[in-house]
User: Fold this.
Amino acid sequence: MDSRRQGPVIRPVLLCAPLAALITSAPAMAAPALPIALPAGRLGDAVALLATQAGLSVSVPDARLWARRVPALRGHMPARDALARLARSAGGSAEPLAGGGWRIVGQGRPKPAPLVASAAPAIAAGDDIVVTATKREVRLGEYPGTVVVLDGRDLAFGGEGGTDAILARLASLSSTHLGAGRNKLFIRGIADSSFTGPTQATVGQYFGDVRLSYNAPDPDLKLYDIASIEVLEGPNGTLYGAGSLGGIIRVIRNPPRLGVIEGGASVGASVTQHGDPGADVGAMLNLPVAGDAVALRVVGYGLSEGGYIDNPALGRNDVNRTRTWGGRATVRMAPGDGWVIDLGGTVQRIDGDDSQYADRDGPRLSRSSLIDQGFTGRYALGDLVIAKAWDDVRFVSSTGIAHQRIDERFDATIPAGLPANDASANRQWPLLTMAPVGMPSVFTQKNDTHFFSTESRLSRPMRDGFGWVVGASYLHNRARLARSLGPDGMPLPLTGVTNRIDEYTGYGEASISLMRGLTFTAGGRLTYSRLLGEGQSVAPDFADANVRLRARRGETNVMPSLALAATMLPDLILFTRYQEGFRPGGLAIEDQGVRRFRKDHIATWETGLRYGAPGRGPFHVAATFSYARWNDIQADFIDSAGLPTTANIGDGRIYSLAANAGWRPLPGLGIDGAFVLNDSKVSDPVPLLAAARLSQLPNVAQFSARGGIDYRALITDDLDLRLMANLRYVGRSRLGVGPVLGEAQGDYLDTSLSIRIGRPELGVTLAATNLADAVGNRFALGTPFLMNRVDQITPLRPRTLRLGLDARF
Assistant:
């Protein structure tokens, strides 16, 4: 993992060589001498820190120059002299630019950078952070919507690694916390259910320009060697289509670097209070294969997280150890004439020995279960991205093939003492006669998904008051759900379902400057979806009764978008936006039968303001208010047989108020915070659920907040210190919809602290999570077969300490 220093006002915006780096706008360098204290390390890191201390605007267009080593620099001198010394140490020179900015170049001017897929184009020094998830590279200061850009090195800092690291830094993102590789993610209160069924996810997840999945849960890919993450709050129907009701999470990988040999590795060991120890290891290697024309970047990792849940019924302690291994490889080819081709592959496997839930009323961090409730999650992705630039017009074509499989076991044992002739028991356990009271019984579920997607687009970033994007895409998804229920070791098949979808899309969006400081954006998306669903392993009595077990239909959807952005001051933007989103319908299982559910549709109005940006000046703030109308909500709930099913539960609405702010009172010290208020309601439930007193939509707290501190300081010329602290409060929410899923959850505080001491190329990290050793309740579900029988909680991982070592060359 790369935990090297990144200055607070510099961010790479091109993820290939040559690389452009931007730092906050400032007046031309003043002549008075300033106190300068820069450690030894990379030129890019030293320039970033100098920008903090002196307030400069600098670009480094050459990626190889950016990575060169420079010695420590201390003393009182004009900022321009310090910059000139850094440039000379790296074998380059500093050139002044119009407007007071500077550029560092090597011996001989570097060639213009080719456009790289999943990356922003080079822009002039002093410009804003570039949001590439807009598919046409919009500066953060001009984007008419809510977006957060997270630095990839910060996410890997302290060994957090996966989706939990993103959750710790965003108040608007929530998760079901069922288990690694099994969770559903939600943004801005757009949440449907606790279970993973045929319903398409409300949050779209992308690896660069390639979509990770369609209806499968979050694969929880570990964030080793990641450049940045962009989170766009939704819906994003115009650009991303179905499944972006809540928003988009886009992970941008560090691409292969042409002509460069570099590598890195990290290793860590952890101890968990009340639990077993753990360990992790990760490595990256970048190799030139054919000079400056072909390069290979390989990443590999493995983690073992110690268990902390005891099972007295079986006499076992710490039963829920989880092991993860994975890796990826990407080949970059630059055949010439501005073409760039990336060919990659990603694999990951997660094995959980047992589930992570506990009994609310039992001993701390324990539950009594007669079976192991282990799970396995496997994910594989192959992707191809081709890109080229012609002056201001850019072409990107991306194709991905993914396979995801999740195997799960749930305890379906009938609790001792339950009368065998209890009517509710017969509804809750349909195979009662096959599994006597107290006999270990298991419910198994296998979700197998194959997904193919391809998209090609042309775009023009905002230049001279006009920018646009136009594209077309196709995707195919086949999701097969197989289930069984019965005595452990010999469960019998239950009705399953297979859903297939083919989706053909054309879309476009354009922005035009109506007058100085006022930009209007409009777009639209036309999608035709062809759906086919059929039942699997259907019970003979249903098949003989000619129950409809197969459905085929087509849907056409048109989704418009409108936005208006006004730049009132150089760093202040006011915006309003209207967006729509949808999800196609499908087939679901209910009471051993199969039936259809309809598509749902959401429309959102959002208005807000944003002043400044992280890394630009001493202060930044953003605030938004949104209203969403959600019709024919698709949601999963418990049917009369005690099994998860999917249905349209009615119409709903969501009000959301969110704000975040950051402050740098001192060089090297940053403080940030955020909060989200959600008021969600199923306002018009279907008759079946009208008596259930539905109110709040599931799994999203009415109030969430977070805060963080980032502190950097020099210990000696060659040794620096970095400290990061985060706390996140998650308010109360409810498990799901319907009378069976009304359990309360949430209302807990999570904390973390990480300290690193070292040089950019070698450092030691000490990290701690859940400092208060709180139990909490992240998710009120372990197995659906004990609903209303045993109160279940999913506790936080107990206080955990990790000692890590990282190195780069």
In short: Confidence is low (pLDDT under 50) at residues 1-31, 108-128, 419-433. DSSP finds nine helices and 46 strands in the chain. Residues 179 and 356 are 7 Å apart (CA to CA).
